[in-house]
From TrEMBL:
Protein's name according to its UniProt entry: EXPERA domain-containing protein
Primary location: membrane
Keywords of this entry: Membrane, Transmembrane, Transmembrane helix
Organism: Gonapodya prolifera (strain JEL478) (Monoblepharis prolifera)
InterPro entries the UniProt entry points to: EXPERA
Length: 172
């Protein structure tokens, strides 16, 4: 097994690490919506977080995806529950993998990218293309929040696959 290269010497990994490290708190803010589906989670996410989420985001943008999840729409609610219960731990695992340069955890990158592509395509369609009566400014605000969460994980999966392929070629 090779010696791990420090994260500071791997600029692409450092950028992806920063993305996933910052993505965890953003996903945790979706927790109150997941708590609607899983009552045991409601104790974890205090009302103050839910109030903040509404004042800072939902009331301002009219985000149809979040509103649909809160209203109990099954697909939207399932996405938020999966994000809370599966993807947050997976993102933490990806951060550990990137920080420690542990190739054994590389599969997390592929799984995350494969999940993010169709999920975010649906979310972007529902928020930006479907007619929900949003203004152009609201759509731009929503796009600025969601597009990075679509493009970065997909880019990361492709990057990880490319790096792994190069390592296989070198070892042959």
């Amino acid at each position: 097994m090779s010696t791990p290269i420090p994260l500071s010497k791997r600029p692409a990994d450092l950028a992806f690490f920063a993305f996933f490290f910052l993505h965890v708190p953003a996903s945790i803010l979706d927790g109150p919506i997941a708590a609607l589906s899983i009552p045991a989670l409601s104790a974890i996410f205090p009302q103050a977080i839910n109030d903040f989420q509404h004042k800072a985001w939902i009331d301002h943008t009219g985000d149809p995806f979040i509103l649909a999840a809160e209203a109990g729409a099954p697909i939207e609610r399932a996405f938020v529950v999966i994000e809370t219960l599966v993807l947050i731990p997976m993102m933490i695992g990806i951060c550990i993998r990137l920080y420690s340069d542990d190739k054994r955890l590389q599969w997390l990158s592929y799984v995350y990218a494969l999940y993010a592509a169709p999920t975010m395509s649906y979310v972007l369609y529902q928020t930006l293309i479907a007619d929900h009566g949003l203004s152009v400014m609201q759509k731009l605000q929503i796009a600025s929040a969601y597009v990075p969460f679509a493009l970065v994980p997909i880019s990361f999966g492709i990057y990880e696959w490319r790096v792994r392929a190069q390592e296989r070629v070198k070892s042959e």
